[in-house]
Amino acid sequence: MLITNPCIIKFSSALLVTFHVFLSLQLLFFNHALAAELTFNIISLGAKPDGKTDASSVLQMTWAKACDSSTPATIYVPDGIFYVRSVSFNGPCKNNVITVLIDGTLVASSDIQVLAKTKSWIEFSHIDGLSITGGTIDGQGTALWNCKHSGKSCPVGATSLQINDAQNVNINGLSSINSQKFNIVVHGCQNVHMTRVNVSAADDSPNTDGIHVQQSSDVTILNSSISNGDDCISISPGTSNLWMESITCGPGHGISIGSLGIKAEEDGVHNVTLTLSTFTGTQNGVRIKSWGRPSRGFATKVYFQHIIMDNVKNPIIIDQNYCPHETDCPGQTSGVKVIEVTYEDIKGTSATEIAINFDCSPINHCTGLSMKDINLTYENHIAKASCKNAEGTTSGVVEPSGCLADKSNFWQNVLNAITVGTQHALDPLTTVKARVNNIGKASALIQHEWCPKSFFTLFADVDTQAIYKSAKVGLALAFEP
Hints:
Blueprint: H1 6-36, E1 39-41, E2 50-54, H2 56-68, E3 73-77, E4 81-83, E5 87-90, E6 98-102, E7 105-107, E8 120-125, E9 128-133, E10 136-138, H3 142-150, E11 159-164, E12 167-172, E13 175-177, E14 184-187, E15 190-195, E16 198-200, E17 211-214, E18 217-227, E19 233-235, E20 240-249, E21 255-260, E22 269-280, E23 284-291, E24 298-312, E25 314-322, E26 337-350, E27 354-359, E28 366-378, E29 381-382, E30 384-388, E31 390-399, H4 410-426, H5 432-450, H6 453-461, H7 465-479
Parallel strand pairs: 1-3, 2-4, 3-6, 4-7, 5-8, 6-9, 7-10, 8-11, 9-12, 10-13, 11-14, 12-15, 13-16, 14-17, 15-18, 16-18, 17-19, 18-20, 19-21, 20-22, 21-23, 22-24, 23-25, 24-26, 25-27, 26-28, 27-30, 28-31
Antiparallel strand pairs: 28-29
Helix pairs in contact: 4-7, 5-7
């Protein structure tokens, strides 16, 4: 018999919908359970946690299985010490959720020749969706450091962990110790998030940069502690949208943008922020460094804020004559442009008298520098500042007092100089010798620091030499102590 009651029809439809939803949820949970069960334990696959048996081949086989899976996969490294000669994990993979979960320790060889021809000990390349969680990687770099200190011929050394051309990468709770060279390198990557990363190496270990970022964008580094013999974090050309927060740095060489200007044609560094961080006993605090040679490189929109310095040798420094060992220096003028760098709320102690040192290029002045609320002391006194070719503004309390050249009122300064200079030139008590000395002093100052050449070309082209000289004299008077 045909059922035509509307109530029964509605009830039947609702029951079918409910049953369909129930089946969909069951299928979802079933698929999720299958995905969660896809975990590869390297001990089950043959690795031995004895610190002697090479687990490289097992790790490579395990990666092949995880990468070939169409569902999320986890590579599990249990508690124990696993010797790894070297491994290279390559994509692209069939899924974008691969997790390397480490409860144990991966150790490299202590023999400096084992990695002599290898740039990276552990390497991931061409992967979308990678997580590395927990554990320790031990580069066993002490023997190589000692070799380098001895002056003997030694291998360059291998980076402990390198990630190339990857995106959507998460590194959480990883410790890197005793790296031969750089600890962690992020190269050519997008959307990388690192948190609770710990780096430890001897304070005299050479070239053991903690985290090195280059040719990468949208990188975040949070709540990490780095102590080593080189830069805690180094930022190279091609880096943009880098956020660093709650970083503890020291000992080491500080956090550096650069070195820039290695090549004549290189990408710049753009939109970098360091905030809520502490430097302790480091060689530098926040640093921008470039080689003294022609280059199209640049560093712009950089923000250093809310930072504590504790006994730091160079808390705030821009060095555009960078040459670390003073050998084979280019001896040229840096073409790198440093533009719009903000220093805000930086406090603490300097280990040297000069706490702020801006040594900028004479052909490309550092411009748009901003200093706000700075308080740096040296031996319980206000430290000193040194500025060369540095232009910008200060606000709030800045100690040591800013030595930046403020060119925002340039034309008013010129007008005032002409007025004062003219009055001085007409003063019969002014000796000829004094006029000549003042004119000479002002001429060098104007031509190299203050006025564009076209301004004085204009003076030279018309019969206003007297005013021209008066302006020089006025500026000389204005800058006399």
